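Hi C.,

You asked whether I'd gotten around to modeling the 153-residue construct. I have! Everything is below, sequence then structure, no commentary in between.
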Amino acid sequence: MILAAGSAYAASEGKPGSPPVEPVPQLQPGLWEIQVRINVPEGPVQDTSQVMRHCYSQEDLADPRSAIPRAGPDCEIHDFRLDGARATWSLRCSGPSAVSGGGEMMLGREAYAANVWNEIKDQGRTLKITQKIRARRLGDCVPGNSETGKDSP
């Protein structure tokens, strides 16, 4: 998963009395810890979590759409909206197993949180998956400090 946020501003309709347009928070480069809690009620493992650490450069953080988790390479983001610090989207994937879903994310300079939901249709059944993602910046990157780890509750 790539994590990102741009320096773009939310679109304004320019109507009198509209609230002021809020800038999108610029995520800071550095070492980030990303915690993902996955729930699959109908799956063999219903609840699992994973913690990853990754160093992100300024280039990694150029586009807010890069932060959106995708189920695979054949997935496309649709209906992406960015309103201040809140992003929402829908997702559709092609391939042997049809995947659809969506999510919402709150962006901050040194943290973000996302809720993602997907439905996978395969062999006549639908598998529902939800993810709660929490990330925070730990500090500057130093060579060799990216790592991944996995644990289950």
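If it helps when you're writing up: The chain is about 0% helix and 50% strand.

Thanks,
B.
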